[in-house]
Amino acid sequence: MLDRLYVMFMKEFLELKRDRWAIFRLVVPLILQVVIYGYAATFTISHVATTVLDLDHSSASRALLSRFYATGRFNIVDMAASQAQVTRDIDTGTATVAIIIHAGFARQLLNGQGAPLQVIVDGSNSNTALIALGYVSQITARFQAGAMASAWPQPATPPGGITVSLEQRPWFNEGLNDVWFFIPGVIGTLTLMQVVSLTAFAVVRERELGTLEQIMVSPIRPFEFILGKTVPFFLIGLGDVALVTIFGTLWFDIPFAGNPLVLLLGATLFLLAAVGLGLLLSTFSRTQQQAFALNFFFINPLFTLSGFAFPIAAMPRVLQWFTLINPLRYFLVVVRAIFLKGVGLGALWPDLAALAALAAGMLAISILRFRKSLD
Amino acid sequence: MNNGAAVIAQNLVRSFGATAAVSDVSFSIQRGEIFGFAGPDGAGKTTVMRMLAGVLRPDSGGIAVEGIDVIANPEGIKSLLSYMPQRFGLYEDLTVAENIFFYAELFSVPRKIRLARARELLEAAGLSPFQKRLAGQLSGGMKQKLGLVCALIHTPSVLLLDEPTTGVDPVSRRDFWAILYNLRESGVTIVLSTAYMDEAERCSRLALMDAGKIHYCDTPARLKQAMPGMLLAITAADPRAVRAALADAPGVLGLLLMGDRVNVRVDDAARRAPELRARLDAQNIAVTGISRIEPAIEDVFVALVGGGAPA
């Protein structure tokens, strides 16, 4: 049995080696995507294209605007002269945010009447709009506090005024750095994509070539064939995890607070589920095109319903149920916790147990289906 | 030669959905035979071969290869058997030598034996100079011969070949058959299927298959004797006109267009030859010659099984 397994592995790696671009295709896209996620994927927004219409022309209105310039969040692309020009800027996409200060702003501010500030945001990108609005309210709140301080300069706390002071101290990622959130997640998504498709394609290719039937008339057992077809990709998956971990910690300075052995355990269970899924897809495909289409059909929902980018808690109940059978969901919890929180088995065992159950189930179903598909 | 049956099949039945691919097929193949299944595409040849190889379970019936029950113990026959489907699965990214190595290891062939045997088989197949070439870069005939080398590397006692020479050039085909005859010398039982009737003639025994059934099974010589009637070959400039003119002539049992001639099966050659010539003359159809010929397997197949003539 061992010599047959050995020759299966040999053959798999020989084929990979013959394929001159294989190493390139395995490693370069992985690193490239980590870099792209590291730099481009962020929820923080800055340099939002902004148009400004100041109809008050007062020192107060200029002071408010200067606060917008100062943050660096807003890029003033246009000083509009009229309401129509503001509308045009938003319509053409020249600006995402418009700040309009109406005439009488300074007067009303001094009279204590409450000075209106109009802000228009382009809601077609709801995420950016929401975050930009958040910044706007922060800036106006600070401006208001400043204005109040200069209006009633003497007492530190105005009579009757009670303030709640918020001291933010996020744990595990004090700077709320998005890269810290994304890169560990990328380990899960990229590895899943690569391992599932490699496994599925490798098995379907044997079916297409006719070598599958040839192997089945040899003394090799179906189980040995399955091991021979999955172990190489399992190992490649572990390599992926190691590569992204090392690259992420060295290049993006992401902390690795936890125990590498717990990560190894989590990755092992996760990859077993991934090769199981790949094998399962291969049993539904006669050709590599079919496998490709099927792969595409599965991978996207797996990403969306994993908590990689969108919080699971915010999803409708039914979709939340689907996330329960998604191995990526549990692995993301594990990998993020190991990187940032540094927790161990004590905290992560429920997720690891779920991963183990999913891996066992996925492998069992795929092996049964694979044996049937041989007929 | 008659030292027991290598393959016994009893009442094999297999359908795919509503189509009956093989219905109630029984045969027995002696050790050292070259046994052929001949018939048109869709006759059920491949289904029979796959059931013998143990990769397809029959719906009912029994198969024994070298005394081992294939259905109950499909693993038990694998080292005795070699199965070569219509297109042998080769790894195109691996070289000729690597493909052979791979199949040798799957069958746990000891290294020493493997090297000697590979050399011998490659020599016979004319592939010795191409050992370092990638399998994907071989011609169709060479691929098929490499398939045979891979299939034979573990010295099986029963060799199953499913249409092994379909799409193979004549030179490779000759190499192929030379290897098969050699194997037979060394006592290997060879079971093959073919749609080529000239190839069927090379078999020691032949099963004529059509529509999932074996209609006749005997040596090529005895099958020819079993053909009712005698055969006249009529050569003519317009053989189609000959066929049309003679279709309902008295004493004519069957007609088969063969290029520039028509093979006419008649009840009595001596009596009908002048009659047919007269009939053709009367219709102004020019005839170059009429002579009695020995039937080929193709004529036998059409006479016995009828229906569409296989290629």
TrEMBL record, chain A:
Q: Where is the signal peptide?
A: none
Under the heading InterPro entries, the entry gives: ABC-2_transporter_component (IPR051449), ABC2_TM (IPR013525), ABC2_TM_bact-type (IPR047817), ABC_2_transport (IPR000412)
All copies of the ABC transmembrane type-2 domain together span 146-373
Which cellular compartments is it found in?
A: Cell inner membrane; Cell membrane
Looking up Pfam families in the UniProt record yields: ABC2_membrane_3 (PF12698)
Keyword Transport found: yes
Which UniProt keywords are present, listed alphabetically? Cell membrane, Membrane, Transmembrane, Transmembrane helix, Transport
**Bilayer disposition of the protein:** Multi-pass membrane protein
Provide the transmembrane region boundaries: 21-40, 179-204, 225-252, 258-280, 292-313, 319-340, 352-370
The UniProt similarity line reads:
Belongs to the ABC-2 integral membrane protein family.
The name on file for this protein is Transport permease protein
- Species name: Acidocella aquatica
UniProtKB/TrEMBL annotation, chain B:
- Residues covered by the ABC transporter domain: 7-236
- GO molecular function, a single term: ATP binding
Q: Which domain of life is it from?
A: Bacteria
**What CDD domains does the database record attribute to this sequence?**
ABC_DR_subfamily_A (cd03230)
Keyword RNA-binding on this protein?
A: no
Q: Which UniProt keywords apply?
A: ATP-binding, Nodulation, Nucleotide-binding, Transport
Similarity-based family: Belongs to the ABC transporter superfamily.
Q: What is this protein called?
A: ABC transporter ATP-binding protein
Source organism: Acidocella aquatica
Task: Tell me the gene name.
Answer: ybhF-N
